[in-house]
């Protein structure tokens, strides 16, 4: 159905897009600095699930609508940007109580929230949707049939690469956090830094326009 040549070609393009710090990477790093590796990795899983959902959406035609419609693109972009800025503001507001928060939330609770947040950030990232809508069809061989299934396979490959790459970012940022967290002052700084990163990410997404 999907040849090795198709998979390798798509993987090369996907890797080039994923390893460059973008919304998902910045979100994971911000979560790692604010709450640690476990929470960051939960956010990674949420982002990967979002990528899979977007793949299915593109496969059934929604991605093409987003690519063509300025209204849909803008609405999705604004929703995602506002949500991310909100998370950043909350992180800054509570930066001085971060020490208590580190041990207060159980792994399941913190992980569950991070997973949901990662999913929302991922699914409302219009750049990913447009990337899928614009790039996935280029690697499909229509003569082979099962076009939606081919696109789903490519999306799964993208998700695996994203899982590995973003996990590395989260672990690295979480390791730096462990050193910073030894001091209450450092901890307040790291909480504010994570919040500023989230706000910067939201503003960046809001300022991203279509290239028509």
SS class: mainly alpha
Report the span from N to C terminus: 33 Å
Number of strands: 0
How many H/I helical runs? 10
Principal-axes geometry comes out as globular
Helix percent reads over 70%
Number of domains: 1
User: What is Rg?
Assistant: 18 Å
Order of helices and strands: HHHHHHHHHH
Low-confidence stretches: 101-109
Q: What is the typical, i.e. mean, pLDDT?
A: 75
Percentage beta strand: under 5%
**What is the makeup of the main sheet?**
none
What does this structure look like?
- This protein is an all-alpha fold.
- It has one domain (4-11, 23-205).
- It contains ten helices and no strands.
- The protein has helices at residues 4-19, 23-35, 37-59, 62-68, 70-93, 98-104, 107-123, 126-135, 147-180, 184-207.
- The longest helix is centred in the C-terminal third of the chain and has 34 residues, at 147-180.
Top keywords for this entry?
212 residues; mainly alpha; 10 helices; 83% helix
Please specify the SSE layout and strand pairing.
Blueprint: H1 4-19, H2 23-35, H3 37-59, H4 62-68, H5 70-93, H6 98-104, H7 107-123, H8 126-135, H9 147-180, H10 184-207
Helix pairs in contact: 1-9, 2-3, 2-7, 2-9, 2-10, 3-7, 3-8, 3-9, 4-5, 4-8, 5-7, 5-10
């Amino acid at each position: 159905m999907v040849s090795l040549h198709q998979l390798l070609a798509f993987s090369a393009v996907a890797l080039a897009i994923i390893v460059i710090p973008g919304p998902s990477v910045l979100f994971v790093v911000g979560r790692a600095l604010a709450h640690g590796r476990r929470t960051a990795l939960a956010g990674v899983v949420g982002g990967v699930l979002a990528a899979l959902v977007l793949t299915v959406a593109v496969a059934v035609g929604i991605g093409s609508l987003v690519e063509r419609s300025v209204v849909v693109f803008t609405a999705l972009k604004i929703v995602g940007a506002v949500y991310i800025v909100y998370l950043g503001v909350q992180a800054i507001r509570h930066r001085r109580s971060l020490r208590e928060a580190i041990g207060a939330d159980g792994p399941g609770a913190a992980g569950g929230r991070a997973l949901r947040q990662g999913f929302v950030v991922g699914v409302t990232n219009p750049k990913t949707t447009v990337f899928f809508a614009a790039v996935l069809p280029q690697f499909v061989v229509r003569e082979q049939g099962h076009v939606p299934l081919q696109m789903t396979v490519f999306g799964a490959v993208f998700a695996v690469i994203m899982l590995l790459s973003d996990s590395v970012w989260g672990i690295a940022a979480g390791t730096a956090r462990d050193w910073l967290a030894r001091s209450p002052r450092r901890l307040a700084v790291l909480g504010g830094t994570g919040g500023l990163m989230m706000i910067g990410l939201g503003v960046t997404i809001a300022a991203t326009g279509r290239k028509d």
